[in-house]
Specification:
It is a single chain. By secondary structure, this protein is α+β, with helices and mostly antiparallel strands. The protein has two helices and eight strands; from the N terminus they run ββαββββαββ. It has a single domain, classed as Regulatory factor, effector binding domain (Multidrug-efflux Transporter 1 Regulator Bmrr, Chain A). About 15% of the residues lie in helices and about 35% in strands. It has an eight-stranded antiparallel β-sheet, covered by helices on one side. The protein is globular and about 45 Å long.
Length: about 160
């Protein structure tokens, strides 16, 4: 695939995230059917957090486990809303503790439609530098602007072994 997207040669930076608690939606899906969860699940997580009087501690994250880029291969998807602490039980969602996460990170400003090309470039750098993934990728949606997608800011975190 020829890519038109350019990013700095060493765009990925190593970091370790802080552990957190989240209100969580978990499912098995494919890249082909991923769009059915956006943005409705995120909106439902925010509504449920409000209903349960939970303190939100960060932006929505999508966590992909064992997604390979094959649009037909099933993988685990978790859509999570970080919160300060668990509250009363939710009928729709679960509470989950996420440990610290060692990763290579890149912050993308622009539309999500660029993610296909962006992932090609990022994983090219990731593997070129001899890194090995632990099978997890996180997308942290720092700024969401559905009317002006060029304003969206998303941190992409590729888990390290």
């Amino acid at each position: 695939m020829t890519t038109q997207l350019t990013i700095p040669e060493n765009a990925l930076s190593e970091k370790e995230t802080q552990p957190f608690t989240a209100l969580t939606f978990t499912t098995r899906t494919t890249l082909q059917t991923l769009s059915q969860y956006a943005p409705s699940v995120a909106m439902e997580l925010y509504k449920e957090a409000s209903r349960l009087n939970l303190d939100i501690a960060g932006p929505i994250q999508w966590i992909y486990t064992d997604a390979t880029g094959d649009v037909t291969k099933e993988f685990q998807l978790e859509i999570v809303l970080p919160i300060r602490q668990s509250g009363e039980q939710s009928a729709e969602f679960s509470y989950q503790e996420f440990p610290a996460f060692r990763c290579l990170s890149y912050t993308h400003t622009g539309p999500w439609s660029e993610f296909g090309e962006l992932y090609d470039v990022l994983f090219g750098q990731f593997h070129r530098d001899g890194n090995q993934t632990d099978g997890r990728v996180r997308e942290v949606y720092t700024v969401v602007d559905l009317e002006h997608m060029e304003n969206c800011v998303t941190e992409i975190q590729i888990g390290l072994l």
